[in-house]
UniProtKB/TrEMBL annotation:
Protein name (record): S41 family peptidase
Domain Tail specific protease: 211-428
InterPro entries assigned: ClpP/crotonase-like_dom_sf (IPR029045), Tail-specific_protease (IPR005151)
Keyword Hydrolase tagged: yes
Lineage: Bacteria, Pseudomonadati, Pseudomonadota, Alphaproteobacteria, Kordiimonadales
Any one GO MF annotation of this record: hydrolase activity
The keyword Metal-binding appears for this protein: no
E.C. number(s) listed in UniProt: 3.4.-.-
Amino acid sequence: MSRSAFLIPFLMMVILCSAAATAADLDGVWQTEGYGYLFDVNGADVTIYETTPISCLRSGLVPGALEVLNDDEVEARFPVSLPGFIDADMEVWPGPDASKRFHRTDTNTFMTATRLTKLPELCTADAPAAPGDTVAVFMETFKAHYPFFSEGQSGWQVPDTGDIATDQQLFDYLTGLMAPLEDAHTALVAPSLDAMYFGAEGASRSVPEEDRARGFEIVDNRYLRSPLAPYGRGMLGYAELARGIGYLRIHGFSDFSAAGTPDANLAAFERALDDFFDPIHGLAGLVIDLRDNVGGSDALAIALAKRLVEEEYVAYTKQAYLGVEGDTGWTDEAATWVQPSDRESFWGPVVVLTGPDSISAAETFLMALMARTPEATRIGDNTRGAFADMLPRILPNGWLFALPNERYLDAGGVSYDRSGIPPHIRVPVFTDEDLAAGRDSALDAALKMLTTKAR
């Protein structure tokens, strides 16, 4: 037998042993820093738990079978789903020292996790599900993970739950706690009542839906040179405002494909962007309208930013709240980069129209343009101030809820959570005066700026 013939099966054995060693290395209980997750890995089987100082509950985020990968970066992955809300993969990346990093692919979040010696006993005990127990877990979760209570307040006071006798009373009690926060990234889902609460729907800063509809009708009828061409199941629309000045309206960074998966949405989004930025349009300037944008995927927001830059830079950094009592504890900053795309792009002047209904991924997109050259000009009003991914959680009675547990920082270390990103040129969104006059003052300002630069 030749030496090469001997080496081939030997090398195959080494590769197989390496894969087995990697699989064994993933086994165990992994505790995340700042997110309250435990990942219990046993071969291909994964169980996810959600923890607080008083509880450990089987997560509503359902995992599938773990697959070990022969990849230079990603060691393994497994599907995760929350029916009706989340359909993604959880990737396992190597971390510093002996840690791992868990990354849900519909987010830009990487959660550092370290191995525990065993599953905590709290995770194997039966969890009481009386109304008082449910309220206690709800409050403790906010105390541990919610960074945006008023100054000096770490959560809500211990409640008297003796009067809560029905699911409806419990639902009203919990939503009554969340509503004053006016936080677009809080939510409660009660399957037993077929009831849902979303903080995005109750904010007093929001422009009334009928005013937004009338405002965009004015734009469509009086400003666009041709009807708005829909893309991505109507989530995007493109038209020309003036010769060489494009107009891109984005209702959200999600739901671009029938499949609804992160990969399918990204593929549909990229195809639309190829069309928008085709040189045949001869763009000299671009207006991006985010005044009615519900957010969605940060990954898609970054995909758009990539089409608008010539050089790479840090878009923003993010941190998760550690819930340190009497202090503000955060994980280390994790950077998200913008890198130029190798597909059709536009590097000229950009104006972005913003307002209180520019939410979540719309805001992270704006942060991603802050270091752009030339900087994109923001015209309108402050954005909503709701940046973080929604952290999904389950309650002892089986209800689901969500809250934000992160902050996003610009290059100067500034967070715009709660306050929103301010405009360069302040123009209130769809005022009564503008609607009555049939004009859009923000769009007028954008056109004046771009047509002046185009001369």
